[in-house]
Amino acid sequence: MNLVERVASRVNALPILNRISPSAVGAHSEEAQQGYLKSQRLALQAAREIKAMLDEGWTEKRTARLMDTWLRDNGVHNFFHHSFVWFGDRTRFVGVKSYGDYGPGNNVLQEGDSVILDVAPIVDGYISDIGFSYCLGTNQEYERGRKLLCDLRDKIPQIVNGSSIGREACAAVDELIRDAGFDNIHETYPFKVLGHRVHQVKDQTAQFHYLNFGWQSFWAFLSRGLFGQLMNENHEGPLAGLWAIEPHIGGKGWGAKFEEILVVDENGARWLEQDSTQNSVAP
Length: 283
What we know:
By secondary structure, the protein is an alpha+beta fold. The protein is about 35% helix and about 20% strand. Mean pLDDT is about 85; it is low at about 1-25 and about 215-225.
């Protein structure tokens, strides 16, 4: 763990920051929700298009470049974060020791490998963030994990509805993962996030990115206080708003996740995507 990670970890362990951060986000209009949904569906379409092309011998870097290119060709100018791609044991972050290691590498896809595609485009100013998993070939343990992800997608709105603060929801999801006999991989993410808020931003053509994240991602979080933007074991702020939820599980040599937007408002928690054939865990 480097100096930045050590400092961030200690600062994030101060729950008072979650209470004083200007993090509350009210309900979004129906028009805005349609904007987020358009962004999310485009990102998932990109993942499915790339899945159809992938074959043995491809590298993570090549796959990530192709997914970013597909999105640019379909009207995306900016990214909350560019494509992350992980194959095999890197889907459970084996060998990841610093922020830079999360980026796509030269790992080569092989038969039986699990695959995670994760990208966050900005479409007409609306940020989405998706995670899409599958396996190249047959892996029975991976398939058992995929079924858990489907189960988690069903249960997470209920869990959030029954939680007054984010850390309660995180604890409940973590318990389900461990009870099923899998490892909790999102616990190894920076700030140990189960999810983060998504926002509307200016969709400008100028681009700058650092560690695979666009400048708008840093501004969207830092300008709103950072800590209330993250759903993790320390979150104590209000839950109203839109969240990109990303449970990530793993077993021996593989990992899998899904990620999509959860709406939390006066009507409770529900997935933004209501079409079961379009969601991020659909085959």
